[in-house]
Amino acid sequence: MNIKNYINGNFQNPISNEWIDNYNPSNGEVYGEIPNSSKADVEEAYKAAKSAFKQWSQTTLEERSRILIKISELLEANLQRFAEAESKDNGKPVALAKAVDIPRAASNFRFFGNAITQFASESHESVGQNAINYTLRQPIGVVGCISPWNLPLYLFTWKIAPALAAGNCVVAKPSEVTPMTAYLLGEICNEAGLLKGVLNIVHGLGTTTGQAIIEHPDIKAISFTGGTATGAHIAKVAAPMFKKLSLELGGKNPNIIFADCDYEDMLNTTVRSSFANQGQICLCGSRIFVEATIYKKFKTDFVEKVKQLKVGHPSDSKTNIGALVSKSHLEKVKDYIKIAEEENGVILCGGQEVNVQGYENGYYLEPTVIEVPTDECRVNQEEIFGPVVTIMPFNSEEDVLQMANKVKYGLSATLWTNDLKRTMRMSNQLQAGIVWVNTWMMRDLRTPFGGVKASGVGREGGFEALRFFTEPKNVCIKY
Length: 479
Ligand code: NDP
What we know:
By secondary structure, the protein is α/β, with parallel strands linked by helices. It has helices spanning 39-57, 61-77, 79-90, 94-115, 152-165, 180-192, 206-215, 228-238, 263-275, 292-307, 327-342, 378-381, 397-405, 420-429, 462-468, and strands at residues 5-7, 10-12, 19-24, 29-35, 123-126, 131-139, 142-146, 169-173, 199-201, 221-225, 244-248, 254-257, 287-291, 346-349, 368-371, 388-394, 409-410, 412-416, 434-437, 452-453, 456-457, 470-478. It is built from 15 helices and 22 strands. The mean pLDDT is 98. Residues 146-150, 155, 173, 175-177, 205-207, 210-211, 214, 225-227, 230, 233-234, 248-251, 282, 383, 385, 411, 451, 455-456 line the site of NADPH dihydro-nicotinamide-adenine-dinucleotide phosphate.
């Protein structure tokens, strides 16, 4: 099936009529084409967005809210169709897309549809000077949203929903590897009655289509989720134009397990935080540190549970681990398993490709647990972004804290303990944007989301996102 660009409410071919193959990772076959959009397509999308801006930014909050909530309802009504499309494009189990990706995409629209009606600005009375200041929060204009392939619609809408709620018009690009649900979203926006040109979705390569968005002098803000190297490149291009930037980048998150935790809960959640979505979630706890007193027991129990995970076709309801997103990504992850062995890591389970009967050309890999001799080895320092975790023991709180922080990333951290004082001490000192204690990936959309160090700049979520997508303007009135 060929997909098209969504510009000014219409579905259209790329101006150059050039196309890119779209692969189904579960069987390695091309199943459609996507536009290889050029600068000219981005320009057209920008013009549509610009001409819609005046009307959209003046649309009442109630009306904006109504439309966003309508989009959310339509996504929910089309749950099965969207979940199947997401799974076919990405390789994730249909059940996961149905339980997580699509419902969370719908929640993004519902949440920001509601949040905008509660968003308020501040006023400051200049006491003794007979003056009052108030802050306007005005939409920026045309903004760019660029998202990755791991949680395609979920992260795409995480940016688009607050941008639209705040009154901006959007030029957006999903990953070229997983464009399908973004394409389908266009249909839903038309059905929900979103004004033409308010949202424009341009498909193509990061280095051409994405590049045209970040280089566009009148696209004044970029919200980007993706790899750290791409984020650094975007920052370089955008800085001389003084664009507003929100960068959600890579992670290499520690999962720290103390002996006093609720063991069963920790064990089950750790399997999930290691391998959900084939380990392709920026928040996965890919470095597992276990207190030495329970290390042996944990190692045995964890490996036994991981071996029970079923790698299979994404549409099989018994599948726990589907296909990796692409052939090149599979090769990258396999390379890291080789590197681990070269660095004296011990593969406790997994490590091999899986032949799923009937889908022999799909990109399947066993969930892999590697015992590492030191936290400084490459597999413990570099983002693998696949079904691979490392484990190693620690002796003291100080040691584990030091190892947890000794990476270039700082997105999230998970802590398993029932000691309140330790929880407080460690949460204060972990270098991360998000700390989960005795849980993982529990999300409340009002909370700030983002990372420190090489994991990004800025925060999204809740009013943080609405602040990002608006310009504050102070008005000072003397009376
Ligand atoms: P990439 O950085 O390769 O790509 C992300 C997006 O940017 C894609 O749409 C890509 O297009 C586009 N892009 C690539 N080059 C450019 C460019 N020069 N200008 C503009 N856009 C460009 O990341 P991946 O898609 O490989 O995603 C995986 C990464 O995302 C991991 O590092 C992961 O940790 C991170 N991530 C971070 C999250 C967070 O919240 N912090 C959440 C989820 C993932 P195309 O794909 O078409 O090349």
